[in-house]
Amino acid sequence: MTNSEERTLISVILICILLLIIPGTALPSPDEWRESARDHFEAMTREEVDQFIDPLITYNVSNGIVVVLVDQHGFSIYPYGNLQTRAGDIPGNEMLFDIGSVSKVMTGLLMAIGEEEGVYSISAPTETWFGDTCPVPDYEGKEITGQDLASHRSGLPSSPDAFSEYDPDASYADQVEQSTTHFLTLSFNETCQWLGTTELLTPPGYQYQYSNLGAAIAGASIAQAYGQTYPDLLEDKILNPLGMTHSGAAWTMEDLEGRATGYRGYEYPADEAIFIGFNDFWTATGGVHSNADDMAVFLAAELGLIDTPFSDAIAMTHEPYAIITEGPPLMKSGIFWDILYNRDGTTILKKAGETNAHQAAIAFNPDLQTGVVILADTATITGNHVIDTAIALLERMQVKHTNSSGLSDNRDE
What we know:
This protein has about 425 residues and is of the alpha+beta class. It has helices spanning about 5-20, 30-35, 45-60, 105-115, 145-150, 170-180, 180-185, 190-195, 210-225, 230-240, 255, 285, 290-300, 310-315, 385-410, and strands at about 65-70, 75-80, 95-100, 265, 270, 290, 320-325, 330-335, 340, 345-355, 360-365, 370-375, 380. The chain is built from 15 helices and 13 strands. It is globular and about 55 Å long. The N and C termini lie far apart (about 55 Å).
């Protein structure tokens, strides 16, 4: 070996050693981020957040709220109001909440993971995964695909006829809970029997029409593709990799002890809501539960702030598939995400959830890597929803970012 070759070899070895020694820009693991990023959120102060949340408590819109805020620096969690559980004194960041239809974006992520792993195809007819076990209807030969389900353009109704069964003489609040109970009592097989006699409202892919039934079928299809129950699949593919140990699609007795007491804000005065679980089939559309600590990690994953085995699948769920409304502002659907295109050029991905007892909201700006989760212990059904507050908080962060960027640009001139 010549001197020149020796010097070249030594240089290569030194470079390799430096690359091993010098810290890189690798993303932290979920557990590392959870420990290092806590209380390091910087995009807004607690006092600024109070201005948005305090009125909701003061004017009895909600009995109790937990706000999760995430940016590139970290996360903060702020509890408000009179949050309670059966177990007594549990910190707000650890209390469990129904996240309602926010469950759907987890179902969508499972579909995207299945696509990435070659187990599932979002463009394939949904009946592919069921065969003769569940007769998914078509429209004059045009079949429903996973993409149709995930963008609420399947042509399916919101729910089966059974959800309209309740005591006509009961109070409105009781009627809501009697209807919601079908998420527990109406089985997959019974739903499939009903589907066999059902006609689609529109051709698949033709028109946006929100469907809890469609999301449940989407969840069942990805579970069938993997040969697992939906709760087990969710735990294996999303919750365990993210360290979301307090989240799940099935309630244990211990979970129920730590569940925030829910209230019927659709009754006046608001009173305590009953607990209504979701069976394995319907959980995909609204039966997942979580707490603020776990949802902070989920939001960080959506923002690309932590290392996950399914970052490509997350990116897939953020892609727009169809128009929900022309606006303004324009809104499109991703894989169960609502994608809002504001006139100022910013983009917000959002999802609202609600059960008979709780509300949940998630909203984030992927470009600024900032986001909000709000968990509330009071449902309103047709009234105010905390998704509006989540978007307002996010837009406030965007304004602050724009103003600070403007000041920085001026200083550079």
